[in-house]
């Protein structure tokens, strides 16, 4: 019998991607303090990609240590605009500020994925998407946020590309799965390689 697969995330978007792909898995959210892990990285000059990989690995290893023999998927995503790294907005005013800053500019979504087993990271992958927002009128931003509601607080960019968020963009370079936060094609390839799923 194949070892179980565990997603170390409570993200409904990541869960949906794996379900849609026909992968059988359990969910065990990691118990890590992301901001505490990130603080020393910011001081060390780590890149947004490095931050995403460190956080994804911490999540995968945390759950893996409590789930012997399982394949544990840890993932994280950072949004970078120049030197600034964005986090999920705390409230709708934070979401409004995010969208105002991103308006008319190209930002990057850096999606990291790590596979761990028996408390050790055994595979890492990073994908990046370049996202160019159109120039957004402040009034439109307010109406957009009123229409989407609190779901805007569930992503680092305050938008969901799979919904109304697509209207914010002028150009996108990168695959859909990277944008949603789970680079699915390389993950499925690795799960097949290690015999965790049929292939």
From TrEMBL:
Report the catalytic activity: N(7)-methyl-GTP + H2O = N(7)-methyl-GMP + diphosphate + H(+)
Q: Does the keyword 4Fe-4S apply?
A: no
**What one GO molecular function would you report for this record?**
nucleoside triphosphate diphosphatase activity
The cofactors it requires, by name, are: a divalent metal cation
Please name the top-level EC class of this enzyme: hydrolase
Q: Which UniProt keywords apply?
A: Cytoplasm, Hydrolase, Nucleotide metabolism
Where does the record place it? Cytoplasm
Q: What Pfam families does this protein map onto?
A: Maf
- In this chain's numbering, which residues are marked as the site (Important for substrate specificity)? 13, 77, 162
The annotated active site, in chain numbering, is 76
Instruction: Report the coiled-coil segments.
Output: none
Q: What is its EC number?
A: 3.6.1.-
A Gene Ontology biological process term: nucleotide metabolic process
One GO cellular component assignment for this chain's record is: cytoplasm
What does the UniProt function comment say about this protein? Nucleoside triphosphate pyrophosphatase that hydrolyzes 7-methyl-GTP (m(7)GTP). May have a dual role in cell division arrest and in preventing the incorporation of modified nucleotides into cellular nucleic acids.
Give the family from UniProt: Belongs to the Maf family. YceF subfamily.
The protein in question is named 7-methyl-GTP pyrophosphatase
Q: Which organism is it from?
A: Georhizobium profundi
